[in-house]
Design brief:
- The protein has 361 residues and is an alpha/beta fold.
- It is 45% helix and 16% strand.
- Helix 8 (201-214) links the parallel strand 8 (188-192) and strand 9 (219-223).
- Helix 1 (10-24) packs across helix 14 (347-359), helix 3 crosses helix 4 and helix 4 (89-102) runs parallel beside helix 6.
């Protein structure tokens, strides 16, 4: 078969769907269409063909959006795929519309509702309208958590077949269990994500300052690129004051997971958090927002601690709760997290669901 994949960035496609691509190229011709980036060559090396597509992930300029739809139409007509896989809002919506119009089978994956839907208002109405048109004839719509699924079904956005996947799953070998580090030099906390308000960077910085005042031996590190440049000067100030250390974007996140004791993920909304899955997979306790897309990844008080989202004080309380435990108890939480990931979030589960749908085509 000829499979066309529409996505919005190379990082997510490679890091979270590499194993799916590897499996697909064994028997099928795979073409990926997405903006250029540093992981494109790695995707090509897997055996995929590449079509460059540029668009603004958040912009809603009517002319630009129309151009993207026209580009998808031309691409699908030229490629003549047997089936199309789409990921994230614009590929799901615009790619789905084109596939429906041209009679091409397609499978959509709602990786999260996104800011445009979560924040409500006019933008939500526009996005849901586009989604309704894009998903109406999908062969299958995959969701990454039950809340997102129920939301879209109750809004009458999805009318055909749908399933909830365990997120993107985790490669258990690449995210292998790592022995819990010594705490002799203090506990090292880690934030991994895009530097933006909706990822909870403000709550993380507040917490880092509060905890650092009481426990100067604790360190708070940050990995991630600036999605909202306004935070750069603030992070630089916190770093200058010795409260945090920012490492920017890193290709090798696992080595940071290995050297740190706890992952903090104060996100406002998620499809299903890959960073929480990866942290738990390598045996680290997690502290995360008690929201759909995060709370599924840990068992409260057993492998992680949840807290009220968007609340800096609640995050501080959660960190205090974890600090009150012994080093052995924190280590046990990490081990329980690994066990949960092995049972529920193996990436092979996701791959097999896709292969099952292809066989039905």
């Amino acid at each position: 078969m000829k499979i066309l994949i529409l996505a919005n960035n190379d990082v997510g496609l490679y890091k979270f769907r590499k194993e799916l691509l590897e499996e697909l190229v064994k028997e099928h011709e795979v073409i990926v269409c997405l903006p250029n980036g540093e992981w494109i060559e790695s995707i090509k090396q897997l055996g995929c063909k590449y079509i460059q597509c540029e668009f603004n992930r958040r912009g809603m300029n009517p002319i630009s959006e129309l151009k993207l739809i026209q580009f998808y139409r031309k691409t699908i007509r030229d490629v003549k795929p047997d089936i199309v896989f789409t990921y994230t809002i614009k590929p799901n919506s615009y790619g789905g519309m084109v596939c429906a119009k041209l009679g091409v089978p397609y499978i959509a994956n709602v990786t999260g509702l996104g800011t445009s839907i979560e924040n409500g208002g006019l933008t939500q109405k526009i996005t849901l309208t586009l989604y309704k048109r894009g998903l109406r004839k999908a062969k299958m719509v995959f969701f990454q958590n039950t809340y997102n699924c129920e939301f879209m079904v109750n809004k009458d956005i999805v009318k055909g077949k749908y399933q909830v996947l365990p997120g993107s799953g985790v490669n258990l070998n690449e995210n292998c269990y790592e022995a819990y580090p010594s705490e002799d030099d203090g506990i090292k906390f880690l934030f991994v994500g895009r530097i933006m308000k909706d990822k909870g960077i403000e709550e993380y910085l507040y917490c880092a300052k509060k905890i650092h005042e009481l426990h100067p031996e604790c360190t708070f590190d940050i990995i991630g690129a600036y999605d909202e440049e306004a935070y750069q000067s603030e992070l630089e100030k916190y770093e200058k004051d010795g409260i945090i250390k920012a490492f920017g974007h890193q290709k090798d996140v696992h080595s940071f997971m290995k050297s740190h004791h706890v992952l903090i993920h104060p996100s406002y909304h998620e499809g299903l958090s890959n960073v929480l899955l990866e942290a738990a997979s390598c045996g680290r306790p997690v502290i995360a927002s008690d929201i759909p897309g995060c709370k599924e990844t840990f068992d409260e008080g057993i492998s992680g601690i949840g807290f009220v989202p968007r609340s800096s004080e609640a995050l501080v309380e959660a960190v205090d709760k974890l600090l009150a435990l012994s080093a052995k108890e924190r280590e046990q939480m990490g081990m329980k997290g690994r066990e949960k990931i092995q049972k529920e979030f193996d990436r092979n589960i996701v791959i097999n669901r896709y292969l099952e749908e292809i066989k039905k085509s």
